[in-house]
Write a structure and sequence with these properties.
This protein is an alpha/beta fold. It is built from eight helices and 14 strands. The strands form two sheets. The chain has a seven-stranded mixed sheet. The chain is globular and about 55 Å long. The structure holds zinc ion (ZN) (3 copies). The site of one zinc ion has 7 residues, from helix 1.
Length: 280
């Protein structure tokens, strides 16, 4: 399994219109400190989150969006979903030789995704007509459900990040290698831990929106990130061989990349950066 980090920022970093010290430093340092909105590509065909920066990231890292066959959507927040990219599947925009796109999302999230596309292109993601027009197929999934897509085994994991509109985390297995992509998320629920129990993770990429601050809202800060790692260790999901990366980095308590990485390494994990490739 090859994972490409297309974006590792929370709404992007430096934050648009912000000139706090961290955003200022990130602009000066450039490189790994500049973060697009969070999404990842697995091999060439499985995308997690189709966001406003996905297309730019695919071009930057020499990836081909037309090869993407599967989309796992975590949730509907604007830093994770851009309906405009799905609208571009409409036939008059010269769509040729695209593979059919299989979309997976929480039922409520899927309905909102569909509504947003329909507002622009009068084609939705759910009806037979809309699906045929856009050459895709949508799948409503709930946490705890496991399913196979091509060579991947996927399990949807419980999330309370956006309970109103539906949100999910994803466990993905290919050739006996397990990845848990856990953003956006607050503290993992008891249900999530039960759903993960019994799976030895080779790689975890988890929400670390906030750094050394005492607030976290519906995300994780440094203290809570470490607590989640320890909780996963206690149920046997993480051991010394598990690769641990933090993502969805914001300017709130998270400095420019090199400084953040130095601190993270001392604490036993790494900070992901845009363009990073991880092979399992
Ligand atoms: Zn987000
Ligand atoms: Zn800032
Ligand atoms: Zn979110």
């Amino acid at each position: 399994m090859k994972i490409t980090m297309l974006g590792t920022g929370a709404i992007g970093y430096p934050l648009v219109f912000c000139n706090c010290k961290n955003c200022h430093d990130a602009r000066i340092h450039g490189g790994k400190s500049l973060r697009k909105r969070a999404s990842i590509l697995i091999n060439d065909d499985l995308l997690i989150d189709l966001g406003s920066d996905s297309q730019t990231a695919m071009m930057m890292y020499k990836k081909d969006m037309s090869k993407v066959k599967y989309l796992l959507q975590t949730h509907i927040h604007t830093d994770h979903y851009d309906q405009g990219l799905l609208c571009a599947r409409i036939p008059y925009m010269a769509m040729k030789n695209h593979p059919k796109l299989e979309i997976f999302a929480h039922p409520t999230c899927l309905k909102i995704m569909s509504k947003r596309v329909n507002e622009y292109e009068k084609a939705d993601l759910i009806s037979e007509d809309g699906s045929n027009t856009l050459n895709l197929h949508s799948n409503s999934i709930n946490h705890g459900e496991s399913f196979e897509i091509g060579k991947y085994k996927v399990k949807a994991i419980d999330s309370t990040h956006d309970t109103k509109n539906g949100s999910l985390l994803y466990l993905i297995c290919e050739k006996n290698k397990n990845l848990f992509y856990a953003t956006d998320t607050p503290v993992l629920t008891k249900t999530a831990l039960e759903e993960l129990k019994g799976t030895k993770l080779d790689l975890i990429i988890m929400d670390h929106t906030f750094g050394d601050v005492d607030y976290s809202y519906s995300h994780l800060n440094e203290k809570l990130f470490i607590e989640q790692i320890n909780a996963l260790k206690s149920i046997g999901c993480i051991d010394d061989k598990t690769i641990i990366y933090a993502t969805h980095i914001s300017h709130d308590g998270m400095p420019y990349h090199e400084k953040a990485e130095k601190r993270a390494v001392k604490l036993g994990y790494h900070i992901a950066y845009d363009g990073l490739e991880i092979k399992l």
